[in-house]
């Protein structure tokens, strides 16, 4: 494990020093093992990488702290909604239809007499699940396809680029209405699948550009000259240096996937009851807006805050990871 | 007639939020003495025998008059073009048409106008949706065979015997036949319909108090008063402009804003405010509409003795009183039989015929469903169309009521289908796996119309394919009975068979509701929940 000393930072290292260390590590194993001296880090003994720089910036960024707090809270209530919300989100008493706040129901009741507070809390789970899984799916598929195309070039690259053009031409909401209206499943998977299907070209384009940029660097040429295999170059040298833009775009996209889920559920093609989703609740409450605006405003507010938190987080991460933009 | 609200409103439903302005029409249509009214685009061309939905029927009601007309207040069939209809045996009828009636192009209405129209409507070649209305007439099986080619062009049971007389021979006794003749499918047609069919479709010619002045599909139809109308019920306004709305909420807010004079379907979610919004210019009158939950008997799971108990249990798990009060603000009345109060007790309506099976009784419901082996398939999925009416609200409420009664949050769930047309297609293809919304708006005010088309073996609107020999026998006997009271009693016996098997769960009787602006007076809805346009005064 020759690269061991540098790996924690190298994993998200940017350019310059990190790359140089990689090159050195892969070749000069014996040399480094010998004296045990710090081989290029700062005088403090612990090398500073872009990753640690970014983390230091983030800790001092109030936007990041605020959004991270909101997101931690959302993750908590997604995992344990019953910790703060009483009862079941599906138990509704029509006699309480459109009532205002009452004991155990600080947000009041909707048109069906369901507890708006309980439903809003339980709705977070759907949103967070869909957002996180869709982002993971999009990130993995997009960066693998984009990375391979960018690295190998040639006709697979041309094919992929034209394919992404085609996907970019599909309007998201229209595509959702057409594709998801034929699905009868009650789970989150069709929605996630649809988002991955339409979301990967964006990431793939970013990853492709980023890999093409990294491929030109000297350390990659050197590794190739030394006989490293394609998979080794891609995984060890290019991926760590090309992943930052993908992380930034994916984090911002997470917020938009959450709002897309709500949009599709609002239109009746996303999640379907008995799933609990903010989009479903907003749709159900909108005809009652004159008499029971609370049933509309609370889930809408929760959705807005959640989307905002993820987008703010994405912004903060971008500022930290991409110093060139500052 | 299937369902009180129709596919016409579906076109913009999905994009409703984005397109409200585009679908809403707008002001500027009503001139002096002309009123504007909300409308849905008709599903089919406006041929009388091809229109089986409410929106097209609205127009046919204004431009045609038939042998009978249903009194706008009582619903009783009274003679209109018929001078008399006589029969010695309830099977052969002799019809005499009144003198002096004309179509709006000047052509006199004769016996032939009716016979030609009925032959056209019955013929398989013309593929008319209401062809089955002629199914009682002798020779129908020749002109409209269930399979294969037709072996005759005209019904052998229809004979013109004079300029103003013709005879109708039925294939069985049917004492109530004359009372069905007010339905639009039986309207007379002018020669122009047959000689210049395309031209007639562009601008239909009828014999009613209104004439069609213009029609642009998907947007508006203008009708103007026919000044030469010879009938006793001429229009008391100068005309009606029907504006297409895809969302009754938009139509309602347009009435509030003064862009529209009359909305004939007040959305359930606005009912809480309607009295103050419109300052009393709101009517809420009983209509011949019954909402039920039908079941797919082609699915063996639902066709067992246990499932019968489950259905009865489900009926007892629905808190009809609470739902009609909260969701519908008393524009629906909990149903206690399978007909409608507009029939009157003499006509066959019998409050309480359903008995305990329609009372809310959670404990009884739990017991019956347990005895019946639980809900077939484990979970109840109520299928409905999401684009019209206020179906989502009540289906969710029915499911919550069932869930609460059974103590299981996930026992029942609504299954929305995007559009009415798709919903009807899925039903037609027998793709239902559980109960589905079934609304029945009567075609004519006879108890027969509430039972035979829905529950008789292989009847036209028996969507669930329910079949019961005893029910069929009782209906045959009731149709053959010449004494009206005895016939009604036999139909009620048949209705009890429906009850004992809970063939469909009756939910509530639906009222017609309408709101209008201060420009209008004398606004009323007939028992079919359609505004009586010719009586409305403007200004």
Ranges of chain A where pLDDT stays below 50 over 5 or more residues in a row are: 1-43
N- to C-terminal separation of chain B?
A: 34 Å
- Strand tally of chain A is 0
The CATH topology of chain A comes to MetI-like fold
Largest protein interface, residues of each chain: A-B, 26 and 28 residues
Based on helices, strands and strand pairing, what is the structural class of chain A?
Answer: mainly alpha
Secondary-structure element string of chain A: HHHHHHHHHHHHH
CATH class category label of chain A: Mainly Alpha
Overall, the morphology of chain B is globular
* CATH architectural type of the largest domain in chain B: Roll
Strand content of chain A: under 5%
Please describe the biggest sheet of chain B, giving its number of strands, its sense, and whether it closes into a barrel: 5 strands, antiparallel
**What name does the CATH topology of the largest domain in chain B carry?**
Dipeptide-binding Protein, domain 3
How would you name the CATH homologous superfamily of chain A? MetI-like
Helical percentage of chain B: 25-40%
- Find the CATH superfamily of the largest domain in chain B: Dipeptide-binding Protein, Domain 3
Organism (chain A): Streptomyces malaysiense
InterPro entries (chain A): BP-dependent_transpt_permease, MetI-like, MetI-like_sf, OppC_N
Pfam family, one (chain A): BPD_transp_1
GO cellular component, one term (chain A): plasma membrane
């Amino acid at each position: 494990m020759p690269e061991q000393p540098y790996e924690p930072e190298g994993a998200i290292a940017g350019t310059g020093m990190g790359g140089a260390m990689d090159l050195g590590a892969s070749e000069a194993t014996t040399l480094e093992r010998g004296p045990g001296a710090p081989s290029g880090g700062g005088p403090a003994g612990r090398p500073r990488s872009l990753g640690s720089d970014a983390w230091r910036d983030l800790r001092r960024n109030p936007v990041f702290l605020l959004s991270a707090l909101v997101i931690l809270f959302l993750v908590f209530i997604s995992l344990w909604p019953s910790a703060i919300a009483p009862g079941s989100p599906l138990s509704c008493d029509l006699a309480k239809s459109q009532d205002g706040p009452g004991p155990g129901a600080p947000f009041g009741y909707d048109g069906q007499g369901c507890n708006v507070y309980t439903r809003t809390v339980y709705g977070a789970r759907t949103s967070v699940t869909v957002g996180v899984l869709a982002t993971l799916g999009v990130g993995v598929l997009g960066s693998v396809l984009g990375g391979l195309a960018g690295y190998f070039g040639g006709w697979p690259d041309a094919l992929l680029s034209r394919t992404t053009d085609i996907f970019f031409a599909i309007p998201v909401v229209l595509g959702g209405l057409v594709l998801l209206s034929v699905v009868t499943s009650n789970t989150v998977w069709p929605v996630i699948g649809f988002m991955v299907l339409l979301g990967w070209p964006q990431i793939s384009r970013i990853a492709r550009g980023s890999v093409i940029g990294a491929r030109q660097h000297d350390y990659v040429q050197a590794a190739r000259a030394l006989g490293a295999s394609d998979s080794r170059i891609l995984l060890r040298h290019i991926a760590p240096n090309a992943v930052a833009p993908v992380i930034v775009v994916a984090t911002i996209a997470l917020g938009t996937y959450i709002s897309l889920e709500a949009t599709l559920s609002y239109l009746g093609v996303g999640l379907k009851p008995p799933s609990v989703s903010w989009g479903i609740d907003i749709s159900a409450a909108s005809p009652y807006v004159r008499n029971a605006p609370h049933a509309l405003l609370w889930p809408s507010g929760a959705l807005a805050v959640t989307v905002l938190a993820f987008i703010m987080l994405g912004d903060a991460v971008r500022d930290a990871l991409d110093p060139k933009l500052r | 007639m299937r369902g009180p609200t129709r596919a016409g409103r579906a076109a913009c439903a999905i994009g409703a939020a984005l397109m409200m302005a585009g679908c809403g029409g707008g002001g500027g249509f009503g001139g002096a003495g002309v009123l504007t009214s909300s409308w849905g685009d008709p599903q089919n061309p406006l041929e009388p025998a091809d229109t089986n939905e409410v929106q097209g029927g609205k127009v046919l009601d204004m431009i045609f008059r038939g042998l009978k007309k249903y009194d706008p207040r009582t619903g009783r069939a009274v003679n209109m073009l018929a001078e008399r209809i006589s029969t010695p045996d309830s099977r052969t009828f002799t019809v005499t048409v009144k003198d002096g009636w004309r179509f709006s192009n000047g052509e006199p209405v004769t016996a032939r106008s009716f016979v030609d129209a009925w032959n056209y409507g019955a013929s398989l070649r013309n593929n008319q949706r209401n062809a089955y209305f002629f199914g009682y007439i002798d020779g129908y099986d020749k002109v409209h065979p269930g399979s294969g080619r037709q072996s005759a062009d005209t019904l052998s049971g229809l004979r013109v015997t004079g300029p103003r007389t013709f005879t109708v021979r039925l294939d069985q006794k049917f004492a109530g036949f004359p009372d069905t003749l007010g339905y639009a499918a039986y309207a007379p047609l002018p020669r122009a319909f047959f000689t210049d069919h395309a031209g007639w479709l562009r601008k239909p010619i009828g014999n009613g108090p209104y004439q069609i002045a213009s029609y642009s599909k998907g947007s508006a139809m203008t009708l103007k008063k026919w000044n030469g109308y010879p009938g006793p019920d001429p229009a008391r306004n100068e005309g009606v402009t029907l504006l297409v709305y895809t969302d009754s909420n938009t139509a309602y807010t347009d009435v509030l804003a003064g862009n529209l004079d009359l909305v004939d379907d007040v959305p359930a979610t606005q009912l809480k405010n309607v009295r103050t919004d419109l300052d009393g210019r709101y009517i809420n009158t009983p209509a011949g509409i019954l909402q039920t939950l039908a079941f797919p008997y082609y699915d063996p799971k639902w066709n067992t003795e246990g499932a019968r108990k489950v259905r009865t249990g489900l009926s007892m798990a629905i808190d009809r009183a609470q739902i009609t009060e909260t969701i519908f603000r008393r524009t629906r009345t909990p149903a206690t039989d399978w007909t409608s109060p507009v029939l009157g007790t003499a006509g066959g309506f019998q409050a309480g015929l359903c008995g305990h099976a329609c009372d809310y009784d959670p404990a009884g419901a739990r017991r019956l469903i347990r005895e019946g082996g639980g809900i077939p398939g484990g979970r109840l999925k109520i299928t409905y169309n999401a684009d019209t009416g206020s179906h989502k609200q009540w289906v969710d409420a029915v499911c919550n009521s069932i869930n609460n009664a059974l103590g299981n949050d996930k026992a029942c769930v609504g299954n929305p289908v995007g559009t009415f047309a798709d919903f009807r297609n899925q039903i037609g293809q027998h793709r239902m796996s559980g109960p589905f919304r079934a609304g029945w708006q009567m075609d004519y005010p006879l108890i027969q119309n509430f039972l035979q088309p829905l529950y008789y073996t292989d009847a036209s609107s028996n969507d669930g394919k329910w079949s019961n020999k005893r029910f069929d026998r009782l209906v045959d006997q009731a149709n053959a009975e010449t004494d009206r009271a005895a016939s009604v009693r036999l139909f009620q016996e048949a209705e009890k068979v429906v009850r004992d098997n809970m063939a469909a769960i009756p939910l509530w009787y639906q009222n017609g509701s309408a709101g209008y602006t201060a420009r209008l007076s004398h606004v009323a809805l007939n028992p079919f929940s359609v505004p009586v346009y010719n009586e409305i005064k403007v200004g």
